[in-house]
Amino acid sequence: MKRSDLIWNKVIIEEREDIPEDIKDYITELHKIIRRVDDLAIELIESGLSEGFTGAEIEQAVIDALYECFDRGEDLGMKDLSGAVESTVPLSVTMSEKIKALREWSRNRARPASSGGEKSNKQNSGRRKIAA
Fold it and tell me: What is the DSSP letter of 51?
């Protein structure tokens, strides 16, 4: 999967004549690193190792793994990411009782932020629709 913003930035950088070639090469290398980290993060999510983690917790695990790799002078790998995830306890675990209580409390006291599928469609079927 390629990020279009990275491709676009690379095209713009290559066309600029006021940027020295060594700086262009450095920027290109940074883009490769970012793309590698993105690919590994996606692989981490798809592997299921980050089940129950929020996006912010996954991001922090990636940052933790990057610091560890930098300290060792190595490139980031899936082993590093999985190690960072395994050493982290997500809020969905540490705060599970409070999350469950909040969901129970909000069930009949708050309006859902998302559609939630068929159930909400049945609830909203009798409501007036506003045409824009």
Answer: T
